[in-house]
Amino acid sequence: MLVAHQKTAQKVLQAGHAVPLDNESWQDLREKVGVERVPPNASKYAEAIEEIRKIAKKTGFDKLVAGKEEK
Amino acid sequence: MAGKSFYHFLGCIIPHRYPSVEKAAKLVFRDLDMELLDMDGATCCPAPGVFGSFDRVTWATIAARNLTIAEAGGHPITTGCNGCFASLWEANHELKHDAELREKVNENLAVIDREFRGTIEVWHYVDALYKIAGFDKIRQKVTRPLKGVRMALHPGCHWMRPKLLKQKDDSERPRIFRELCETSGAEYVPYKDELICCGAGGAVRTADVKISLEFTMQKFDSLIKAGGADMMITPCPFCQLQLDMGQVEIQKYFGKEYTLDILHVVELLALAFGHEPDEFGLATHLQYMQRKSEPAWQRIGIKVEES
């Protein structure tokens, strides 16, 4: 697994999304187009992220993508 | 009369990088009497390239978790992303037909008190638009026909592939996406590499952005060789990101300048339905934000007042 792919997977476990709402400017962009600053997905609901982490722990995916070096 | 209701699966790129697509979808679906419901707590689909490649059961479980949100409300899902459609549609299909996988997934879902039941379907925006609204109704809504605008298409990979499994369209000679886009009044421009990948998919962009951009350049060069176009239309925000933001990256890495407006199909229809670009923020595409530029308004059929 490439480190880049590992980091993408880690983002999903951290934020619930591979491409997260990780900067105020992205919320500004949403406001500019006329939608709510934070969408009704895992960016708004922390419990959704917690569910993803529980799934990853159950399947061992958290270990698969944690702390590996690129080979 | 109330139309069909869908849970609106936003995914990652639409709400977090191209929210103009989210807004345009809301305008277009409303105009066509189709309801988009918030899908509270949905997560990444998850990304088919990364998750699907490295652990099929985890991929299917996270996808199934998203499906259970829609199952609880009793409405199908619609999404405007080919990648999200791939994960959600294929997981839904596999879980309905593979008892062993379904058992493993439901064991995993039990830790969060959820269960996949297989009671809903997954639709791409394209499916909802042509199957539920229908081309006739869409044509009736067109108040700004984009006559004379030359439109290249990038259908992308995952809506219609695998062809035999999804049975959406002939993936080598597709017609549905073209017919949908042609309702706008724009003129279809064929080019040799219309059907190749944008370059981003299969986790290639994540692994090596320069290699992914070589695919993108091949597409653009193929279009230029065919005489060029005024805009390119895609049904996928990941393809859109690659084709739109990719032009800035190509200039940075390869020193080649392309300036082509890249629209999602719901943005095309929003314009054709008479919505002003500012209603959904067309000018917020990352290409324009990075280059401090704006769409080539007249080329894409929008009249601008002289200042």
Give a quick set of tags describing it:
heterodimer, A: 71 residues, mainly alpha, 58% helix, B: 307 residues, alpha/beta, Glutathione S-transferase Yfyf (Class Pi), Chain A, domain 2, Rossmann fold, 4-stranded parallel beta sheet, 16 helices
- Tell me, what's the shape of chain A? elongated
* Count of distinct strands of chain B: 8
Rg measurement of chain A, Å: 14 Å
Counting DSSP H or I runs of 4 or more residues, the number of helices of chain B is 16
Q: How much helix is in the residues of chain A?
A: 55-70%
H-E string of chain B = EHHEHHEHHEHHEHHEHHEHEHHH
Beta-strand content bin of chain B: 5-15%
Quaternary arrangement of the chains shown? heterodimer
What is the residue-mean pLDDT of chain A, rounded to a whole number?
A: 93
User: Structurally, how many domains make up the residues of chain B?
Assistant: 2
Task: Explain how this protein is built.
The complex is a heterodimer of chains A (71) and B (307). Chain A has one domain. In chain A, 58% of the residues lie in helices and 0% in strands. Chain A is built from four helices and no strands. Chain A has helices at residues 3-15, 24-33, 46-59, 61-64. The relative contact order of chain A is 0.20. Chain B has 307 residues and is α/β, with parallel strands linked by helices. Chain B is globular. In chain B, β7 (231-234), α13 and β8 (261-264) form a beta-alpha-beta unit. Chain B has two domains: 5-125, Glutathione S-transferase Yfyf (Class Pi), Chain A, domain 2, CATH 1.20.1050.140; 137-291, Rossmann fold (3-Layer(aba) Sandwich). Chain B has a four-stranded parallel sheet with strand order 2-1-3-4, sandwiched between helices. The interface between A and B is large, with 40 and 44 residues.
